[in-house]
Amino acid sequence: xxxxxxxxxxxxxxxxxxxxxxxxxxxxxxxxxxxxxxxxxxxxxxxxxxxxxxxxxxxxxxxxxxxxxxxxxxxxxxxxxxxxxxxxxxxxxxxxxxxxxxxxxxxxxxxxxxxxxxxxxxxxxxxxxxxxxxxxxxxxxxxxxxxxxxxxxxxxxxxxxxxxxxxxxxxxxxxxxxxxxxxxxxxxxxxxxxxxxxxxxxxxxxxxxxxxxxxxxxxxxxxxxxxxxxxxxxxxxxxxxxxxxxxxxxxxxxxxxxxxxxxxxxxxxxxxxxxxxxxxxxxxxxxxxxxxxxxxxxxxxxxxxxxxxxxxxxxxxxxxxxxxxxxxxxxxxxxxxxxxxxxxxxxxxxxxxxxxxxxxxxxxxxxxxxxxxxxxxxxxxxxxxxxxxxxxxxxxxxxxxxxxxxxxxxxxxxxxxxxxxxxxxxxxxxxxxxxxxxxxxxxxxxxxxxxxxxxxxxxxxxxxxxxxxxxxxxxxxxxxxxxxxxxxxxxxxxxxxxxxxxxxxxxxxxxxxxxxxxxxxxxxxxxxxxxxxxxxxxxxxxxxxxxxxxxxxxxxxxxxxxxxxxxxxxxxxxxxxxxxxxxxxxxxxxxxxxxxxxxxxxxxxxxxxxxxxxxxxxxxxxxxxxxxxxxxxxxxxxxxxxxxxxxxxxxxxxxxxxxxxxxxxxxxxxxxxxxxxxxxxxxxxxxxxxxxxxxxxxxxxxxxxxxxxxxxxxxxxxxxxxxxxxxxxxxxxxxxxxxxxxxxxxxxxxxxxx
Length: 754
Description:
Layout (H helix, E strand, L loop, with lengths): L6 E3 L18 E3 L7 E2 L12 E3 L7 E2 L12 E3 L21 E3 L22 E5 L5 E2 L9 E9 L4 E2 L9 E9 L5 H8 L3 E7 L22 E5 L2 E3 H11 L7 E5 L2 E3 L6 H6 L7 E5 L2 E2 L20 E5 L8 H4 L7 E3 L7 H7 L10 E3 L8 H8 L7 E3 L20 E3 L18 E3 L17 E3 L19 E3 L10 H6 L5 E3 L4 E3 L2 H9 L3 H4 L8 E4 L15 H4 L1 H25 L2 H15 L12 E6 L5 H13 L7 E2 L1 H4 L6 H10 L1 E8 L1 H5 L1 H13 L8 E5 L13 H9 L3 E2 L4 H16 L1
Parallel strand pairs: 1-2, 2-4, 3-5, 4-6, 6-7, 7-8, 8-10, 9-11, 10-12, 12-13, 13-14, 14-16, 15-17, 16-18, 17-19, 18-20, 20-21, 21-22, 22-23, 23-24, 24-25, 25-26, 26-27, 27-28, 29-30, 31-32, 31-33, 33-34, 34-35
Helix pairs in contact: 12-17, 15-17
């Protein structure tokens, strides 16, 4: 149950005793909400470095006297909500470092005859008492000199010995649950010089006049008194006002969740005779006044309010303040009427001419105001007003022109249902809040504005910076902002804080580039980086903007496509050049021709062979072929039938198909070799097809006639089989002499007939 920092959580585990094996490494031990009944001497003996021990909500009824003896470093001990019937000073005798002690919610009726806390010199907060706690005796708090907080559940406290709390020299905050009003004045008299803030709950103030200050002299320490869930009547509240005025140090009064039974008919004469009040701040929150609509105008209280500086009456059904009374708040600087029933008609009476002459801050939020123009006009009567909160009123509309206080610096118009912003907004503002109004744009000229709050609107872009040159803080949280550019960001020259969190950011390359390279982002953006999340593209949805890095293809798609196209074009161009240089086109053509020839039978049927020989020759050698060789062979006896391309090719047919068909329809292929033949493109095709079709069949269908001397090296290397044949087989060579020519013709005719 222990983590790396030795914080051990054994709460709610159904334990009946403190588990054995505790070591000196443990610093925090949580045993709350178990069924432990008894703490024995050895249970915590080894936990010498324990700083916090939580034992609340168990069933502890007994503790051995030396159970905490080894816990000299303990700072927090919580024994609340157990079954302890008494408290022993021996339990706490060795807890010299203890700062926080919680003992409330047990079953003890008193603290004993002496002080259980005499050895706790470093105690800072003490919680004690329970519904059975009934007696506080003198000496119960001896040994305690300074407390930050003292909490006493004295709901059934029936006996308080005078002077019991005087031993504590200083208490910053004392909270006491006290239903017995008879001992309230006795406790107050004891703490006048020690407590700074007294908070009393569930009290029903007494009717009898018991002075709070008896035989006490200034200076008093008590500055604030809070009543929580208290009950007042017209009579008791009048008496309380008189009695509290005796405490000259008292500056602040607070009432929370209290009930006032009456109609406001207070003893104003007695209150006036008791002298001037020193209270400067009154805060009333959620006070229920039965039949509040019958509550009178507090006539006669004017003399008691002229020194008041701060007044808050919230959630208390206030619907009006009489003009006569309002004019006597001559020193009031701060007035808070939020969450009440103020309407525009009654506001004319509440803020009449001459009322609230010193008022600087006014809060009218969460009321029932409907007209912004009237509200502005009434508040313009407050000459010194500079801070106005009229948020959460349903104005619904905003005029083009409004009359405001001349010195207004702060205006809160959030959640007022205004559909747009107009020149009704005063140009003197330094702070403007128009959050939660479904605004789609903002373009006002506000030269002095320093802070602008546009949270929860429908803005798609940042507002323009030029009309607000002094803007320091801007909030556009939870809008429809997709991104913002470097130019927009840098246009706010004095910007120190920008809250653009919780928007659906489109993580484009431009936006991400700006975010990653702007040095001030982390210092200026509020909530960075956790609250800035990408909504698109889909691949990075939900990722923090600061962690997203898009690829080159995603960021520069058109550039990448252009580069790829250029590269493809260059590669094609390079291939064309290489193909041209190395006759790739020629090879492709011949491959296609060979593939077609492969699909045909290797030897045409005898009935389709109609030539003795197909003659392949260069056009430059046509004179010899047509005038010499053709005449000699075709006029022989019997005559030979030769296939010549000029004469026998089928018009309109692809020339390669003509060559293939002519070779296949001929018994022999006769090649007339010369230098011109080697250079002829079509002779190359005819010769190469002979490679594929004839030489691969290992027959002698090809006859080579060398018309002129030619070196085998002059034949292109791709005609490797032709070069091999010329090197290994006999070929006919055209002689120069006539006698030798006759032998040539004889041998050629024999070759053709073979």
